[in-house]
Amino acid sequence: MYLKVPTLEREYAEAALETRHYPIQYMTTEERALEVDIALPKGFKSRWLPDSLEIRNPHLEYSGTYEDRGDHILFKETFRRLQRIVPPDAYPEYRDALRSISEFSKQEIFLNAKG
Questions:
Q1: Total-model pTM
Q2: Average pLDDT for 82-108
Q3: Measured between alpha carbons, how far is 21 from 91 in angstroms, rounded to an integer?
Q4: CATH code for 2-13+23-113?
């Protein structure tokens, strides 16, 4: 069985373009922390969890991890946007980081029946 948690999916419209001529401007910097405890159905255990994702660059920091705790899975995520303005020359690195976060957030958890 596989489990996809839709509320964990991230999309970043600002990462849609391949190049930019103007900077991205946000109103503020940002920090979000999320911890989700996913109770597994009775009789199931995790078979495969996505590898952790760590990103650090001058504009953002991201950490996302899944942890197998037997009868439940703990998901932890921290997102920090460190700069309010992302200049066009920094856009490719910033875009790639956001796209990596988006791909990570869409991964599924695979479960097996115990025994």
A1: 0.91
A2: 97
A3: 10
A4: 2.60.120.1130
